[in-house]
Structures are given as C-alpha cells and as structure tokens.
Write a structure and sequence with these properties.
heterodimer; A: Rossmann fold; 2 domains; B: 0% strand
Chain lengths: 371, 312
C-alpha cells in the first residue's frame, strides 16, 4: 500500500469541474511533482491535499488513514507557499514556532526545535530578524524551516521557487533535493517548470485541464510520453512533432516527411513494430527530441537505428553548451541539437542523423501515442 | 539649429516657472482664506474683553491671558449651571472612546470575514454595509429614537427584575450604540478594502499551523493592520466627536450632554455681555482632541508595514 493515495478525486466549483477524477499514489519518502500549464488544476489538487479546499468526491489517504475530512492542522502536513507567507509581524523564530505554539508545545521544547531546524538550514543568525529584513533566498529557507519543524508525514510545496531569480532558483533546487535526500521526507511539489519537475521528482504527474495526462518516473515521462501534450510539455527545447506519413522503403516501413522545395525524405524504420503497419499510407506525427537529431559524428554510438538525411538549415542558435539548428520538415520548424563546436552554417545543406530508437509516433486524430 | 533649440528650451523653462508661481500663489491664497477664522479664534481667545471691544479683530493680543481658557474650562455657564465645560468634555470622551474602539474592532472583524472567510452572498452583505454609508443622519433620527425608547423601557424592566439595567437607557450608552451602528458601514468598508489586498496565503499558512478563526484574527490580521487602524480611528474619532445631530437629539439635555451640544449652549447662553474670548476658548478646547488624534496617530501612519510578507 502506498503512503499517499489519491483515489478518484473530484473538485467542482459550481458547474465547473476543476479536477476530473485524479488517481495518484506515492511511496513513502517519494517526491511527487505535479506539473502542468497554469489553470491545469495542480495548485487546486495540492490545496485539497492540504485541506485548504474541500473536495467534491473521492478520497485522500496518508499512511492508510483517510484525511479528506480533517482540518488542515489535523492532517499532519506542512506546506511551503509560493509567496512564502511568512507572518510579517513575527520574527523568524516566531514564524517557525507559531504552529507549535498553536498546538500548545511548551516553550523550552519549541526553542529546542527551532535551534535544530536553524542548524539544518543555516539560519541561526537570522532568528531574531523580521521577514522584511531577509533576502529572497533567506525567506525561502525560513519558509522551509517552518515546514520542517513540524516533522510532518507529508510536505507540500506550492511553486516555492517561482519568486526567485534564475541563479538562486538553481541553488535552492539543489538544496531542496539535498534536503529530501538527507531527511527522507515525502514531498508533493507543484510547479509549472518542467526542468524542476525532471530534476527533483521520483514521480511526475503531468496535468492538463484537471486530468492527469501521464503519471510515471521522470525517465518514463521523458522517453515514453503517452500523448502529444506530454511530449510537447516536457523537455526544453520541446520535442519536435513532425507531420509525416508511414510509407514503404525497400522491404520495410519508412517514415516520410515533406521538405520545403525538395523531394520528401524517407527514413527506413529498421525494426518497426507490427502495429505501425496499420498506419501505412496514413498521416502520423513523428516525434523526435532535439538531442536525437544531431550531426552524424555526435550521434549515439550504441543506437541501433540511425538514419541520416540531408537537411536545409534555416537558423543556427549557438547556446554555449550546445548549438541548436533549425530546419523545416512537414511544414514545421524542427530543432536539432548539435555539439557546441559543430561547424554548421545557416542556409547550408547539412547531413543530420536521426536516432530512430528514441523516436515516437502519435496518432494526429487522437494525439495518443501509437508506438 | 542649436540656437533655436536653446531658445525653445528657455521659453519652456520660463513657462514652467510661471506655472509654479500661479499654482503656489493660488494654494497660498486658499490656505490663508482657510486659516483666517482659526487665527481670529486663537488670538481672540487670548484677549481680554476690553481689547476685543476696542481693538482690531486681526491684531495680536497686547497682553495675552489664559483667563478665558480657564473660565471656559471651569466656570462658564452652560444653560443654567455655571461649572464650565469640563464635565461635558469628559462626557464626550466617555462616549467617543468606546464608540471608536467598538466600531473599529467590529469593522475589522467584518472585513476579515468578508475577505478571508467568504460565504454565499458575501457581496450582498457587503453591498448592504456600503449602503449604510449613504443613509442620511436625519432619516434615522425618529426610528432610532423609537428603538432607544424601547431599549430604555427594557432597561427599566431589567432593573426591576435582575437589579441592573446593563446600561440600557443611559444616554451615553445610547449614543455609543448609535455611533457604533452608524459607524460599522464605514469601518467595514475601510477594513474590507484593506484586507482584500492582504495576502490570503498568510491566512492559509496559519490554518495549516493550526490557528483558529479568532487566533488568526488576533495574531495575524490585527498586528498587520496598523495603517488602516490609524485611518479608521482618525475617521471615526473625528466624526463621532464632532457629531452634533445625534448628540443633541438623544442626549441634548441633562448630565450626559456631549461637548458639541455643551459648546452650543455656552454660545447661546444669553446673560449679560457675550464673552467672545470665552466662547472662542471653549470652541478651541472642543476642537483639541481631534487635532491631538491627528498629531499622535498620524505619526504611526506608516506605509509599507506589509513589506516582507510576500516577495518584496
């Protein structure tokens, strides 16, 4: 039995259904990231776990106990808010101990707990300051301290890094990951940033319009997206989703894509699955991540199926660690990811290698994965 | 090219100076016009009657004297009793302080509920509260008198049955009641608008921390409401202290008469010569508390108290 179980959860505001039957589970010590575009219901889902929003149907269980009818303070959870929500009239120590004070913990025990948390987060020198005297990163730390001090069964993070600048965000991301590794707490984390999701999670739930699109480990989500939305949302630059048709090349199946002002290219699919032949001569969406479309020298050595094609390069974007080249296939801009020192010129025709073992196919009508 | 540019810049600068002169000149004129009566009051209150009758209204007192102030405070006649206005001053304090505190706290509580504990129809309730701000005083005079009358009768029967009237029927309590009821509309409006912008996440965090409805109000909302508290207290204090209509209607005679009514009676007492200096001093005394509230509370009117609650 999983530690956190969400079972058929529904949430309705009037006639609008915000959450349409959510089923998730998370093992003890796991790190679940809820990710999706704004308005997908991920924050509402977190608030229902916290008890700040009521639910219309379903059940939320933590450690086998149904908590969905309990008051937030009785659920044995702690929450870190997007704006940190530090009480401006209290000192850092007051902020951290407010919950204990409300639960009637004696003063000397509170002091001990504050000192312990201050040590873990290295905020001992800030304890007597007011939140207005802290920097963004320090406020973030105090907000985490307030959650840590409760020693709850479940931590809830609501976009905790979105108010920080880019560099600090990376630092705090690592810090959260380290905290999770050392304390072994169970965390549910909401973000719209797919990099945060990939780096932090042990499980990711990609959400859209109140539904979970895919639920799995970061590797599953990244390599085996179940539909075009997940494929497009996770990864940066996004996966290339190229309109194509399934054709025949020699004895086997091939994927055929239109090029601008030239004959279509046809890539042989060496070990195409049997299912794909049903789509012969039909349109499909051919999905290939930018790193699976690269210069022939940079292509993965141990990939079993590599197909090379000569492509017209429209734009070259040197990004320092990589060079991105944009070409046009099937009427869409397609991004290839090359080595930083790749010698490539815009306007030239260059051979690029498709790593077909990493390629995926979608049905354009249903947007679902075919293969 | 450059000659044209510099001359146009010069003419631009001179227009700017002219604008300033006109603006500040007008402002100074208005300020003078507004302050003149106050000046006359102040200088007159320090003059002897001789000087008032024979001298210029605007001239400074030749031999400044505190006599009129002392007389106004302790000896002048209000109606038929001649014990000064000090008793009425305290009457006003006893009435205004509880009325301001109660109405402000109720407004804060209403604002808290209307923004952070929303219920079905909260906009309607707020709309009705807002509507209360537009009810003219005069239209509630008679109905309110009827209500106060029945409260007074209820107080008498309480007195007979349990030995205490709980203050019902007491004119001071009546005035407090009227001012609280009338003030709630305004104080609710102030606090609701302030709390509307108050970060709801603080309330949620306190809920997760296990704080109850009133604990959140007392520990989180109130300590972070200083600016709006000051605004509301200044507003309510000034309004209630200066109120004449309710005061004269519900406590216009007898011992509970507030300052404003007493001042009116001082000025209207027609025995012998009109003591302008005493009248002016009494009026100044009547105006002092509101001035004092502005001076004292204004210092705490600090903005940016919420800095640090959310990302700054």
């Amino acid at each position: 039995m999983a530690f956190l179980e969400i079972d058929g959860l529904r949430k309705r505001f009037g006639n609008v259904e915000i959450l349409k039957g959510i089923n998730l589970e998370l093992e003890k010590g796991g790190f679940l990231v809820l990710v999706g575009p704004s308005g997908c219901g991920k924050s509402t889902l977190l608030n229902t776990i916290a008890g700040l929003e009521t639910i219309t149907a379903g059940e939320i269980r933590v450690d086998g106990r149904a908590i969905n009818d309990l008051h937030p303070s009785k659920r044995d959870i702690a929450m870190v808010f997007q704006s940190y929500a530090l009480y401006p009239n209290m000192t850092v120590a007051g902020n951290i101990s407010f919950g204990m004070e409300m639960r009637g913990v004696p003063a000397d025990e509170r002091q001990k707990a504050i000192d312990k948390v201050a040590k873990v987060l290295q905020i001992g020198h800030l304890l007597q300051r007011k939140p207005s005297q802290l920097s963004g990163g320090q406020r973030q730390r105090v907000a985490m301290g307030r959650a840590l001090v409760r020693d709850p069964k479940l931590f809830l993070f609501d976009e905790p890094l979105s108010n920080l600048d880019a560099k600090l965000r990376v630092d705090m991301r690592i810090e959260i990951k380290r905290l999770h590794a050392t304390t072994g707490t169970t965390i549910v984390y909401v973000t719209h940033d797919q990099i945060e999701a990939m780096t932090l999670a042990t499980k990711i739930a990609v959400m859209r319009d109140g539904e979970v699109q895919q639920f799995g480990t970061p590797a599953e989500i990244y390599n085996n997206p179940s539909n075009m939305f997940v494929a497009d949302f996770m990864g940066s630059p996004a996966m290339n989703l190229i309109p194509a048709t399934v054709g025949v090349n020699g004895h086997g199946l091939a994927v055929v894509m239109q090029r601008e002002a030239r004959e279509p290219i046809s890539l042989p699919l060496a070990n195409a699955p049997a299912g794909l032949s049903e789509f012969k001569d039909k349109p499909v969406i051919f999905g290939v991540r930018p790193e699976a479309l690269t210069d022939p020298e940079g292509a993965e050595r141990n990939a079993s199926a590599i197909a090379t094609a000569n492509l017209h390069i429209e734009v070259v974007e040197p990004a320092g660690s990589d060079t991105f080249a944009v070409t046009n296939l099937g009427g869409k801009g397609v991004v290839a990811r090359l080595r930083a020192d790749a010698n490539i010129q815009p306007g030239s025709n260059t051979a690029l290698a498709f790593n077909l073992t990493k390629a995926v196919f979608f049905d354009p009508a249903t947007e679902k994965r075919i293969f | 090219m450059s000659a044209i540019a510099s001359s146009s810049r010069q003419s631009g600068a001179s227009t700017k100076v002219l604008n300033r002169v006109v603006i500040y000149g007008l402002l100074a004129l208005f300020a003078l016009f507004y302050l003149m009566p106050l000046f006359v009051m102040l200088v007159t209150s320090f003059k002897t009657m001789d000087e008032i009758q024979n001298g210029n209204m605007l001239s400074l007192p030749k031999a400044p004297t505190f006599e009129p102030w002392l007389k106004a405070w302790g000896q002048t006649c209000v109606g038929l009793t001649c014990a000064g206005i000090k008793g009425y001053f305290w009457n006003s304090i006893k009435m205004v302080v509880p009325a301001v505190i109660i109405s402000t706290l109720l407004g804060a509580l209403n604002g808290y509920v209307l923004t952070k504990w929303r219920f079905r129809g909260h906009t309607l309730v707020f709309g009705l509260m807002l509507f209360a701000c537009f009810i003219p005083f005069q239209s509630v005079l008679l109905p309110m008198a009827t209500i106060l009358g029945s409260l007074g009768r209820f107080g008498v029967s309480l007195q007979n049955s349990i030995g205490t009237s709980l203050g019902l029927g007491n004119p001071t309590v009546n005035l407090i009641f009227v001012h609280v009821v009338y003030g709630i509309g305004f104080t609710t409006l102030f606090f609701r608008n302030y709390y509307e912008a108050f970060p709801t996440e603080l309330v949620k965090a306190a809920q997760v921390d296990g704080a109850s409805f009133f604990q959140i109000f007392r520990r989180i909302m109130l300590p972070n409401s200083m600016p709006i508290f000051v605004v509301t207290v200044i507003y309510q204090f000034t309004n209630i202290w200066n109120d004449f209509l309710f005061a004269s209607a519900y406590a216009g005679t007898g011992d509970a008469m507030p300052m404003t009514v007493a001042l009116n009676n001082v000025v209207n007492t027609s025995t012998g010569v009109v003591e302008y200096n005493v009248n002016m001093a009494a009026a100044m005394i009547a105006a002092l508390p509101t001035l004092l509230v502005y001076v004292l509370a204004g210092r705490y009117f600090v903005r940016g108290l919420m800095a640090g609650a959310v990302k700054g």
